[in-house]
Amino acid sequence: MASGFPPILTGRMTEAPGDSHTIARYEATGGYTTLRTALSGMTPEQVTEQVKASNLQGRGGAAFPTGVKWGFLAPATPRFLVVNADESEPGTFKDRQLLERDPHQLIEGTVLSAYALAVHHAFVYVRGEYPKPARRLQRAIDEAYAAGFLGSDILGSGFDLDLMVHLGAGAYICGEETALLNSLEGKRGEPRIKPPFPAVEGLYSRPTIVNNVETISNVPWIVANGGRAYASIGDPASAGTRLFSLSGHVKNPGNYEIPMDLTWRELIYDIGGGIPEGRELKCWIPGGASAPWFVPAEHLDTRVTKDDVAENGSMLGSGAVVVMDDTTNVVAAAHRIVRFFAHESCGQCTPCREGTTWLERMLWRILQGHGRPQDLDMLMDVSDNISPGLTWPPAMTTICPLGPSAVSPITSIMKYFRDEVEEMLAAGVTT
Ligand SMILES: Cc1cc2nc3c(=O)[nH]c(=O)nc-3n(C[C@H](O)[C@H](O)[C@H](O)COP(=O)(O)O)c2cc1C
Ligand code: SF4
Question: pTM of whole model > 0.90?
């Protein structure tokens, strides 16, 4: 997604040149020309209009339209822009590569976005376990200040922006935007009750836009080429290209940038090379650990658009596609995911704090051959307490979606692999 160039359709990100993170390489490939053009010839409203016309949807998980979110920003000043680089959803590793290999694209996108939003202070909240991406980003920010792309009177335009990096401390929940804002303020990283939404009352109670790294990294291309050009890529309702982190039982794992009108078969088999060692595809997680699973008999020829995935009861989420072959013990896989959520629960809500721990312990008991006959019903009952009705999208009894996320693997294995769970239970039932 280099500025001034078309997106690298079906490109594998690891093929970027070794010095792609430097300002010299970025400028040599057209970087910062869009910023020069925008600051000298476009009003903030015109930049916003292009983002609205692009139909860009947030890449952090909820796929909320970016232009619409920007429109909610309350007029009060000071106001802030926060780039969410906490990337901790299991299976997701796209933002890491954007930070490590293309930090100037993110910086250019941040300055353009801040200009559009009349923001003069922006932050990038980087996952604590990402020291190398954070170092790379900080070095790039230093280069950008030295070159006049950040700081006071950027490129003689009269527009000022300061950009700072904040390193998290290793809590997954700080990726949730309001927990992130609390953490940035030096408080415990706990989600806030919404409303008010950050666009009205965010960082230090000021109007704040929170956007994902990939979302903001799209802005230079959109401003350079026009929102309509971006909207014409992929599916009309899921515009543009999107990064998918493909992992698990595929021959060619990696980050791939693809237009969102391909099918899962094309992503897993044509791009990912298919399942290694002649084994069969059993199932896959289409959008990070929080997403309900897909199975080949029903979903292989459906498309990777937001709407198609939602119609089939799941979400594209953070773009993490985890592929499982026919040797996978699905109970063990579900347990691993539930254990993650139980560990990362911030503990504010009883259904999440207690429920995720119960689910984890029951799955562990079944795996150890000590399952009880009533365990299946109890798994569903506890899940129903966290996410009433077990619907998709989930109904919530909690402040944030982390609790309901832990239910996705449970409902997935009960829907598609109930016979395997029952078999495992029967093999080791204790009464
Ligand atoms: C438990 C939880 C974890 C999240 N983690 C991340 C994350 O690591 N990175 C991210 O960009 N968004 C994450 N989100 C989504 C953010 O709350 C927010 O919607 C997003 O940063 C907005 O950016 P976007 O509109 O560009 O997608 C998470 C949400 C939840 C509920
Ligand atoms: S759902 Fe879980 S993680 Fe989210 S606020 Fe409640 S206890 Fe914390």
Answer: yes
